[in-house]
Amino acid sequence: MHRDENDISASSGAANAPQAFSLRDMCRRHNIRFKKGLGQNLLLDDNINRIMVDAAALTSEDAVLEVGAGLGALTRRIVREAGQVLSVEIDATFLPCLEEQFGQMSHVHLFRGDILNHAIDQLAAQHIPGATSYKMLSNLPYYITTPIIFEFLESPLFFERMVVMLQEEVGQRLVAPVNSADYGVLTLAAQFYADIDIVHHVPASCFMPRPKVDSCIVRFRLIPGTRYPEVDRNKLMKVVRTAFSQRRKTLRNTLVKAGVMGLAPELAAEALEAVGIDSGRRPQTLSLNEFVTLTQALMDRSSDIQ
């Protein structure tokens, strides 16, 4: 029977975790070939999946949205702890494998599709209705890591925690301290929504085929309503991006001379002075709080901020 991406929900059967299995045998039985274009790699160390689930601190009250279920190795651990699970997988060739393991579990729902093509809150309402506590876990493909992270951070549905495995380089940028080489736009954009830490480092040797870079597990503990509800995030990020457009230059040469937010240079300089930020500083020396304060000062001086 043909099933489209809206018709793969498991709705009946036992909720017990399936028996132990061999990932390699599963690949052979279902003739699965990993696609480089989709960033697919087989994680050989199941202990990594345990670390991810532990970091999410799952309870029976949680509804979990898993992105990129693959062969279901992480899913198998999630279903033991969470009250409801919605596992999303873009590659149809993995679905027989997932249905074999989870198709008879009443609290597990499988969905074929690209998470970026669907509203997360609508997916949750359709497949895991009635949930009150949401968490997200994912082994993210490297090529699309950032868009997926922000799809969840910016979703109208609040996810208490997100635990993702991603490229080590991206993880370092997410947790970078002020005035470090990795600190920049991504750091500030993500930390606007959450407290972020690296839980575990995962060497490339843990995967097959072996990627060219190492990975890490990153935990996001989201802040209800964002950290700074008083500031317009779009305007804040406009200031941040303008400042970091030439990170080696001073704020005087980026924000002031560029006339950020349509302000005349003298008004931009006035805003910096008003909040006590030296225009000779470089963007990587400013904390998120300083960028927020500066953005508000710039907004106060503009009647036509685009």
Mean pLDDT: 87
| Count of distinct structural domains | 2
CATH architecture classification name of the largest domain: 3-Layer(aba) Sandwich
In this structure, how is the largest beta sheet organized?
7 strands, mixed
CATH superfamily of the largest domain: Vaccinia Virus protein VP39
Instruction: Assign the structural class, choosing from mainly alpha, mainly beta, alpha/beta, alpha+beta, or little secondary structure.
Output: alpha/beta
Strand order of the largest sheet: 4-3-2-5-6-9-7
What is the overall silhouette? elongated
| Computed Rg | 22 Å
Give the ordered list of helices and strands: HEHEHEHEHEHEHHEEEHHHH
Low-pLDDT ranges: 1-20
Distance between the termini: 51 Å
Protein traits:
disordered N terminus, 306 residues, seven-stranded mixed beta sheet, Rossmann fold, alpha/beta, two-stranded antiparallel ribbon, 2 domains, 36% helix, elongated, Helicase, Ruva Protein, domain 3
